[in-house]
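Quick start: what a row looks like.
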Amino acid sequence: MADLIPFDDRDGKIWFDGKLVDWRDARVHVLTHGLHYASSVFEGERSYGGAIYKAREHGERLFASAGMMGFTIPYSLEELERARYDVLEANGIADGYVRPIAWRGSEMMGVSALRNAIHVAIAAWDWPSYFSPDARMRGIRLAISDWRRPSPDSAPVHAKAAGLYTICTLSKHKAEQEGFDDAMMYDHRGFLAEATGANLFLAIDGKLHTPTPDCFLDGLTRQAVIAIAGRRGVEVVERHMTDEDLARASEVFITGTAAEVTPVGQIGDRFFQPGQLCKLMMDEYGAEVRGG
């Protein structure tokens, strides 16, 4: 823990309700509704060489998530896009992670918060790729989560909302305590769903198969990989999948803004050998985000 740099004690600037403020001054009150009732939405974005990949799509999803949570963001899509780049410039970041977040404030404390102001902040920090290509090709290890993604009639499953990540944190903590890198989650019906913060792809008989995102996020990286596969003549099948499909898979990888395209070497007691499809998607995605 000696090398841990707390996120509340850093140099730099954060965009907070319309202006850049010193990093350590970007604070909220302890009775903020977003803290007590998880009434907040956010995005995770990456900047490559100073350009945010799919910035407009991330912005649109932030606004859509806010709508699903019943509140309106008090800035335009264009204002927040400019603010993202202001944050990158103010902090001197070229390759980094960008985190916009919107939440209900502290005017009312209780389940109901119709009169609470909506706040928005944007932070960014340096974040190179997780692993070298060689290290990533060894594949990460996924435990099996005890928690399942909820049904669409029990939670706002298509919003990128803070509360939906509670079971992800619980799942990842347990996985790491058991020596794994992350966890794979099933959905409420027992179908394969996703990892705790990334979508899932299986290579079966030369095709890519990916779970239908009807109760979890249809990730922007997921969408990008599907498009890349189409351009390279690789068929992608979206469908509900079971453990039988894991048994048939020759390769597995996950996709997400943070994970990018990361091969999987183990899920539970099943092992996989990352191969040509994993490498192709890694290389093609890497070229695309860098404008290649």
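That is the whole record. Helices lie at 33-37, 55-68, 77-91, 133-136, 166-177, 220-231, 243-248, 276-289. The radius of gyration is 19 Å.
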